[in-house]
């Protein structure tokens, strides 16, 4: 298993740097284009949650750890911050049947992440929010370079 | 991301390409805040959109609620992950896709 970490300020503007970092670590693997897009969206949802809720938009350090497994291929990405305890998995499922006037976006992002990842877990430990996602390469089998 | 906006009489077309996520959605939000009161048709061309996150859905919902008050809104050209997210989120029933 290979492991690499990036520590960066939890700000919305840093999301592209996190996405680039993760894509770089996964480049030697054979993730499908679809899986890479799903990961990019997961990073967008999770990192913006950290920026907005754990740190209330004021910034603070976040560490993104990427672990890759070769046989069979899989990636585990762990997001660690020192902000306010925030469990994104605690929110109830959004009501998908409401019309435009009644719809709420809160909780929808994590709902979509749950659906598109192969695993997701949260714990609050030693003052850290620790959110972990697992993703398999998908079925297209072709390599997704940048 | 590239957002282009065309206005012709009371119809506006917004073409969003690339990624519509937490980073790029505020740009779309600014355009939506400036929708003219006499606009009767708003068309989103998403044929160049690679992916959308909940931040992008939020802006589309803002647009739909505004156009419910003053006219019609259509979403064209959605494919791939964008269409999957619309289906998974129930937005395929809120938006008028064509």
What tags apply to this protein structure?
heterodimer; A: 146 residues; alpha+beta; Heat Shock Protein 90; 5-stranded antiparallel beta sheet; 3 helices; globular; disordered C terminus; B: 98 residues; alpha/beta; Transcription Regulator spoIIAA; 5-stranded mixed beta sheet; 4 helices
Mean pLDDT of chain A: 93
CATH topology of chain B: Transcription Regulator spoIIAA
- Total domain modules of chain A: 1
By CATH reckoning, the class of chain B would read Alpha Beta
Protein topology:
The complex is a heterodimer of chains A (146) and B (98).
Chain A: E1 2-9, H1 15-26, H2 33-54, E2 61-69, E3 74-81, H3 108-116, E4 119-125, E5 128-135
Helix pairs in contact in A: 1-2, 2-3
Chain B: E1 2-8, E2 11-20, H1 25-33, E3 41-45, E4 49-52, H2 54-70, E5 72-76, H3 80-89, H4 91-94
Helix pairs in contact in B: 1-2
Please give a structural write-up:
The complex is a heterodimer of chains A (146) and B (98). A five-stranded antiparallel sheet of chain A has the order 1-2-3-5-4, covered by helices on one side. Chain A has a single domain (2-135), classed as Heat Shock Protein 90. Chain A has helices spanning 15-26, 33-54, 108-116; strands at 2-9, 61-69, 74-81, 119-125, 128-135. The longest helix of chain A is centred in the first third of the chain and has 22 residues, at 33-54. Chain A is built from three helices and five strands. Chain A is an alpha+beta fold. In chain A, helix 1 (15-26) runs antiparallel to helix 2 (33-54) and helix 2 packs antiparallel against helix 3 (108-116). Helix content of chain A is 29%, strand content 27%. The model of chain A is unreliable at 141-146 (pLDDT under 50). Chain B has 98 residues and is α/β, with parallel strands linked by helices. Chain B has one domain: STAS domain (Transcription Regulator spoIIAA). Helices cover 41% and strands 32% of the residues of chain B. Chain B has four helices and five strands. In chain B, strands 1, 2, 3, 4 and 5 form a five-stranded mixed sheet that branches. In chain B, helix 1 links the parallel strand 2 (11-20) and strand 3 (41-45). The longest helix of chain B is centred in the middle third of the chain and has 17 residues, at 54-70. Chain B is globular, with a radius of gyration of 12 Å. The interface between A and B is medium-sized, with 27 and 24 residues.
